[in-house]
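Need Multiple sugar transport system permease protein's 3D structure for a figure. Predict it.
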Amino acid sequence: MRSARRLNLNGIVINAAALVLVMSYALPYVYLLMTSIKPAADVQQIPPSFFPVVISFENFRDVLQSSTLPRAFASSLVVAVLTTTLSLAVAVPAAYVATHYRRRITTLFLLFALVTRMVPSVSLGVPLFQLLKSLGLLDTIPGLVLAHTSAAVPLALLLMAAFFEGVPKDLEEAARMDGCTRFQAFLKVILPIMTGGIAVTALFTFITSWNEFLYALLLTSESTKTAPIVIAEYNSVYGLAWGAMTAAAVLYSLPVIIVTLALQKQIVGGLTFGAVKG
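Structure prediction for Multiple sugar transport system permease protein:
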């Protein structure tokens, strides 16, 4: 009886702590959402109110009627999708080779990928600017995709390497004994069981490119400007246009939420992959 009560109390404490943690993460987004549905006059009031007195969608109307934001959204989407696709095309086979065919050079390769994650992005801004300028790719979608891919590939490589560590080598050996080549074993046996890990890696890579600000600021201007830059430039005669800015930010967060919900099953499977071994 006492043990049951103790377990019940422990469950209540854990659930309460989890609720507080979730609310601490959700509160800024809820405040962002509440600000986006306030009239312009209420956004600037002092002291600010958390909940709107009157619900208004004029901020969303103004944002959707602008000519710059839809084009910036399209640029961000194209760049994020191309970056994710290119990063996975490079990182997935590279991570498989690095983990299943251990050599000193593959270990150094993974170590080099880890070191590149430690380099501040701001220190690479000027070299990337000069490189893309010399290639004629400055202020272009392909140039920005290459810049984002250079930052996303090390992350995708390390994530996929961690997932491939949980794949038994016996699977490839069994496929080879059945007549498959190494490439066929990788394509027909290994990849189908790695959908969860690939989904998790794709999501993190997509978010990395979708939220990227520095390279987009340095390497683009009017023609290929992405949504984070456009949102940061919302101004009014009184300063920052908080109402329009928060409405645009809410709209900008929707694709990530939709992608996360769409890949929820694969993400959960990927995060728990290899957690239980028989």
